[in-house]
Amino acid sequence: MNFSRRVLDTPPYLFHLIDEKRKAVQEKGIDVISLAIGDPDRPTPDFVLDIMAREMRDPRNHGYPSYKGEPDFCDAVARWFHDRFEVELDPRSEIMAVIGAKDAVSHLPFVFLDPGDSAIVTDPGYPVYEASIGFTGGKVVRVPLSEDRGFLPDLDAIDPRAADEAKIMFVNYPNNPTAAVADETFFEKLVAFAKKHGLVILADNAYSEVYFEEEDRPISIMKIPGAKETSIEIHSFSKTFNMTGWRIGFVTGGKQLIDAFLTLKSNFDSGVFMAIQRTAARALEHSKAKAFNKERTALFKKRRDRIASALEGMGFKFQLPRASYYFWVHTPPSYASSVVFCADLLEKKGLVVTPGVGYGPSGENFFRISMTSPDERIEQGMERLRDFMKER
Ligand code: MLT
């Protein structure tokens, strides 16, 4: 078969690989607990399902959607953005619907990169950033995230020539996999950095609503003066409303940037099912949305605190997650690689966690735990981890 170099050179998606390994163990009749992917265990709330049940029966929603996103969807996003982030966006030119955040993340590099161009990613980082840069024929420049800097990139340490050459830089706060958050000062520095070096920031804000304390409430990069000319921000409904399977999100940015993305996307796909757009739009502003978010935060905070005390009891080193669904934990020093640690844990205890190296070389001595499984499965998972650590 004459497959393209692009496909031959790209490893399978991290969670696809993990799924295959999990299935292979399950096929041996073992009860596997997965604390790997960040896929909420709770259903999409009833108030969202009720809207969808009506919208999907409306024949006006059955044709091709507009490429940019339905006007009522963009209007609702603009109002929500104002309410949530105190940022004014023009719904006609500064917002565009996408088929989930992964659609935006995987296609945006094609808007900016020609073969041989370079792009900065933070390491560790969501694996799709590097994969999509690779698909364009671009070169990846990794900027390490270290624990002592709160997993924020040291912008001053980036080689100025590499920064001048780079056309884009991916950032992701709240961060997957480290669960770190970034404040306004960081985003101000980032926008100044983008202006200075003439690159575009692709700010993945998929976890903007998953945080634990008010003081860590994520902001939007769009709030920073000049950001609209230098940045595109990516948002998702997946984690906010337990809608991972629905595939809907949006991007924001200045008109020129959004128009360029529209050129690419209108040639690649036909947009998001209008019933889903209308449901998502109404979910954002629904009278039950805030209460739902509060309840979700309380649930995950409880899970976070229980996992933290379990891990502490086992002697693991980690920083308490401030946002997102993840724990980013040091592997025990006796393990040479995070892959070996995770494989051993799966084989001996039927527990799946994610090897840190899957997020880049700087993730090598870490593993990631996701809090998106039912409470009793998380408890059982922690028991298995405890037994594993004792029996090693
Ligand atoms: C994760 O677990 O990192 C994400 O949920 C995976 C994804 O978005 O594909």
Detailed description of the structure:
With 392 residues, the chain is of the alpha/beta class. It has two domains: 5-42 and 290-391, Aspartate Aminotransferase, domain 1 (Alpha-Beta Complex); 46-284, Type I PLP-dependent aspartate aminotransferase-like (Major domain) (Aspartate Aminotransferase, domain 2, 3-Layer(aba) Sandwich), CATH 3.40.640. It contains 14 helices and twelve strands. Strands 2-8-7-6-5-3-4 form a seven-stranded mixed β-sheet, with helices on both faces. The chain has a three-stranded antiparallel β-sheet with strand order 9-12-11. It has a two-stranded parallel ribbon with strand order 1-10. α6 links the parallel β3 and β4. The longest helix is centred in the last third of the chain and has 25 residues, at 289-313. The mean pLDDT is 97. It binds D-malate. The site of D-malate has 7 residues, from loops. D-malate is lined by residues 15, 37-39, 102, 176, 370.
Head-to-tail CA distance between termini: 45 Å
Number of domains: 2
| Attached small molecules | D-malate
Mean pLDDT: 97
The CATH topology annotation of the largest domain reads as Aspartate Aminotransferase, domain 2
Structural class: alpha/beta
- What is the level 1 CATH name of the largest domain? Alpha Beta
Biggest β-sheet: count, sense, barrel? 7 strands, mixed
Summarize the amount of helix as a percent range: 40-55%
Strand fraction:
5-15%
**How many DSSP E strands?**
12
- Main sheet strand line-up: 2-8-7-6-5-3-4
The coarse silhouette is: globular
